[in-house]
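Please predict the structure of the following assembly.
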Amino acid sequence: MRRALPIFVVLAGLLVAIAVVNPYFLEPPAFLAFVKRAAPLVILAAGQYFVIVSGEFDLSVGSLVTAEVVIAARLIDGSAEATWPVLALMIAFGLIVGLVNGVVTTLLRVPSFITTLGMLLILSGAVFLWTGGSPRGALSEQFRQLGRGSLGPVPWSVLILAVVAAAAVWATRARFGHTLVAAGDNDRAAALSGVRVARVRTVAFMISGLSAAVAAILLGGFAGVSAQVGKGLEFQAITAVVLGGVALGGGRGSVAAAMAGAFTLEALFTLLNLYGISGALEPAVQGVIIIAAVALGAVRFPRARAAAAS
Amino acid sequence: MLSYSRRFLAAAALAVLTLPVAACTSDKPAPSASGAPAGAPAGSAAPADKGTGEQSKFFVQADYDAQMAMRKAQPTGPSDKPWEQTIDPQLVDTAEYKKAGPYHLCFSNAAVDNPWRQVGWKTMQAEVALHKEITKFTALDAEGKDDKQISDIAELTGKGCDALIVSPNTTATLTPAVSGACPKVPVIVFDRGVQTDCPVTFIKPIGGYAFGAAAAEFLVDKVPAGGKILALRILPGVDVLETRWSAAKVAFDKSDLQVVGVEFTDGDAAKTKSVVSDYIQRYGKIDGVWMDAGATAVAAVEAFEDAGQPVPPINGEDQQDFLKKWSDAKLTAIAPTYPTYQWRTPVIAALKVLKGEQVPKVWNLPQPAITQENLATYLKPGMPPLHYALCGCEDLPGYPEKWGGTS
């Protein structure tokens, strides 16, 4: 938790900055709306955390989200009865894509950067081929409720986020989480001490695929069918994880901090928007963050080295 | 403890790096200007400023005036077949291209990467199938790439086409390719133009200014004086979209309305919804929404519904999802169009040219707007949500199944 503290301080600072510009922001409805909007990215960041901390990358989540939403719309086609089976199918599809990513990376020893980049291209190409750039069908009202509706004052997506966050924190504290971090820190040492590295990494990819499926359910519900829904989400998720202080290459970082990183990124975008700065700047800001966070994380200050040596 | 402080330093440095980005750019001439409530950040603005910002560098007064005149003009031709109608035709002789059938038509298509082009492309194929004298139809898809379209056009000119239809991906880059094809084969250009008059005819709806003006004038008419308008645009710098906004700017500048924001949405529904929600939150109430394209209009409408507010006057386009929402939620709305029926016209024009009949040098098609009065005509249950109502395809064989609908 101590390592995660800085990102929470930055997040609090940003929230205060937003509240200064827009005092209404800290009132429950507005704040819940913010959490609701951030929920898909936070869930994706949690999924991405498992992959990154195990020493890999998952670049396929953005196009997986798009594929999920487009497939769901085509299969549901506005019918209420189809909603729940299709939701189950989406979850299964996310897990299968994760499984393929994991198996190709661990058993075929293709670097995950290449595996998941390939998966990104395969999924986006397949979606384009299938839809011809124009998604068909429609999501049912029941489906839309998950991303759009609320239980009393609390949006469904906030409740789903709470469940996902709790599960993610629990998973990292369980034995699985420790073996995952060990595999990311030094996979040979972990293997020698009995960790089945290939298996835990594959499970990490499956968790990431699952998070993409959940994010797709929320995003599709929030704004409806679009062939661009997942565009750029993989980089937002990785930026969020890095911002949360999780080391690229694996072995260090907490899932809570990764999720806080996602909230921070979303808060930053909200603040930029409040200042009337065009969305065109968002990728640039993300780029600065990702380079600065990795660079600053890699800098070894003399005093820190002394502390590490002692 | 020390490693913790190092990380803290890193995070703090990050905050320092990124926050000034927000701070120092806030004094740019952001279009959100006067009329903003106290506390909202905004650039200072002269009293006469309607918050619409600088005029686009794509704005051409003469073109604007011409399109405004065409909106009022009466088109000639059969009124039940708007794709055969034309406004202000300057007819040219085509006797030099006259030849006996059967014909081989060729088509260089910029892309089929969005619903508008999808609907149009299906419509064009169905139109080709209507004419027995077209025995061969060769189409190449440039997939949105200028370089591919340049080589596509070169390839098609060597294939023995009797006429070549071109829908250019971009105006300037494709001009030399079209100029190169003109001496070899009669060329028909539609949708976007090229900077040469060598094509036999150039087919287009009235244009972007007419679209933007129709939507803006509707808002000026429906929104009470002083009302706050949010303008949503897809991208900056695209000529066909810049003209839409620049015509709206002219209308808003003359009005009593206040444009509180001009935002870019990338055509993304989630982003559109977020932007609109932010504006509702920031201003408490938005009195009208102007859009340069209708693809995300439903998301904008939903932002008001989810905020528990009445939906203000808004414009969309002729896509079924918006028309359905308009009808179901009883919106105050208008849908200017950029009709997909223009995809029928090039085939008709090509046959006229090959038969030596006169065609207009610039074939201006009527560009109607869907209003409350004629909404029911264009609302077509059973058609997919992203279908464009003004396809002019209802009488074509295979409708509605070929367009993804059910009868």
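Residues 85-206+339-367+392-403 of chain B form a domain with the Rossmann fold fold (CATH 3.40.50.2300). Chain B touches chain A through 66 residues (CB under 8 Å).
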